[in-house]
Amino acid sequence: MKLVSDPAIANKISKMNQRVRWQDPLIVERNIDQTRLVLEDGQTDNSEFSFLVIGDSGSGQHRGHNPQRQVAELMLPHHNESRFMLHMGDVIYLVGSSEYYHQNFIQPYREFILGGEHPRRIAYDQMIFKLPILPVPGNHDYYNLPILLSLASLTTLPIRGLLRSRLDLDVGLHGSGTGDAYARAFLDYLKAFQLPGELNDHLDQYYTAKTDTGRCLSYQPGHFTRLPNRYYTFRYGGIDFFALDSNTFNDPPPLPKTKKGDAARKVLEKRREDLEQEKLQIIETSAKLRPENPTEADQLDDFHAKVSQIEEIIVDIDKQLAADKTTLTDTEQLEWLKQRLIESWNTAEVRGRVIYFHHPPYVTEATKWQQAQTLIIRDRLRDVLDAVAKEIGSLTQGRPLVDLVLNGHAHCLEHLETMDTGHADSHIHWIICGGSGFSLRRQRIEGADLMETFGNENRLVARSHLFIGRNGQGFQKRRPYSGLRIDVKGEHHPKFIVRPLVAEWHQRQWHNRELEPLII
């Protein structure tokens, strides 16, 4: 029984293009850059500024506690000192449904939204942010609900088991609409304009910012807070930020049509079958637990996390089993990133670069390093950075191509640094902020060093300097949920002061933790 369905990449790209009227003649005629925004807050020239980071937050109430709201409250004292908030994706679990935006987004972040004192009055597709919230889509923001589950057929045994369970999976009656709910919540949904002149008037009113790549969307906090596209860029304080949609370049290559490939396929099929059985067993067992009992409530939280983790691994296996010669990569987005990074390095006023997207290329969370999606994301990002490095040559003067990469997807807070990888992603700092509300994960038992095989050589490619995730057992189990405040300091070569904001759920109480800032 599948709980989620991941649409094909071609479908994701096509649907999202339709929603923003990608390259519509009226847009092209006005020389509008649909991948850029200008944040109109009157402070973009300040070289020192702060911003917040969260990710993988979009869950509802846990058993007796609300981690997402706790992290939001940790961020409130930093609200007035921060210029914007970056969200690493998975805004809404489990399938990005519009019906969960009130419970899983608007209510927890109500102080950041105009009219938040009355959150029930805010329509999810009419949100206006007092503090800009600038997300990228996560895999759960694209997921759909399999038709069997959406019909909730009572004649289907696995469905009956799910309905009896106490897991509170936040599935609802429908899925994301292949990212439609996310698009209506955050993107400038130009598809909605049908009457003659409507699109003209809208473009003239809101696409008024002028940049070196053409006119672009003017993001106005407290007034008009829409994003131009699923991937985009903006400049603040001399730092170029690049927001990517990694859901459209994460399909693994096909398994080889050889004996070795056939054997790998059989291993994957068997693992998938075992995971499905494990998931059904968890669902059946959960039906016997009592949420009112604190010990059993903790077990239900653990089961909830395990089912989500199993489903994610199954999706990764399905991607490998379905991959063939027609596997599609979002080459347009990757070429865009390459060209924009080259332009950034050739622009004198730019002094730093930050890339953020959902799937981490480097990670030590227990389930991610060996996933096919991690490998292909890493390979494709490397290809882009290698091409940029070749093009710009000595312009970097020994600096890494990118100052900081931010990701989510792994349910933890982690700081890694790449070594000499043999590619242009060497000596870069990577921060994963995916522990802002959904069930946390543990670090892998292999520890902090990440090894990669190059030919016959096994090479250290990255090392984790900090990992904050689920730890301990039984009554000593700790669940540290987290967000970040990042302060940008310095004039020419910026420093990033990363301040973890951690709220730990331990022995059924909240404990706020103060950690030393990371200086990058």
Model description:
By secondary structure, the protein is of the alpha/beta class. The protein folds into two domains: 9-253 and 322-519, 4-Layer Sandwich (Purple Acid Phosphatase, chain A, domain 2), CATH 3.60.21.10; 259-321. The protein contains twelve helices and 18 strands. The strands form three sheets. The protein has an eight-stranded mixed beta sheet, covered by helices on one side. Helix 6 crosses helix 9 and helix 9 (259-286) runs antiparallel to helix 10 (294-322). The radius of gyration is 22 Å and the shape is globular. It starts with 8 loop residues before the first helix and ends with a strand.
The order of strands across the largest sheet is 7-8-9-10-12-11-14-13
Oligomer: single chain
What is the CATH C level class of the largest domain, in words?
Answer: Alpha Beta
- How far apart, in Å, are the first and last alpha carbons? 45 Å
Average of the residue pLDDT scores: 91
Shape: globular
Largest sheet: 8 strands, mixed
How would you spell out the order of helices and strands? HHEEHEHEHHHHEEEEHHHEHEEEEEEEEE
Helix content: 25-40%
**CATH 2nd-level architecture of the largest domain:** 4-Layer Sandwich
| Strands, count | 18
SS summary, helix count: 12
The structure class reads: alpha/beta
Summarize the structure.
This protein is 29% helix and 21% strand. With 520 residues, the chain is of the alpha/beta class. An 8-stranded mixed β-sheet has the order 7-8-9-10-12-11-14-13, covered by helices on one side. Strands 2, 3, 4, 15, 16, 17 and 18 form a 7-stranded mixed β-sheet that branches.
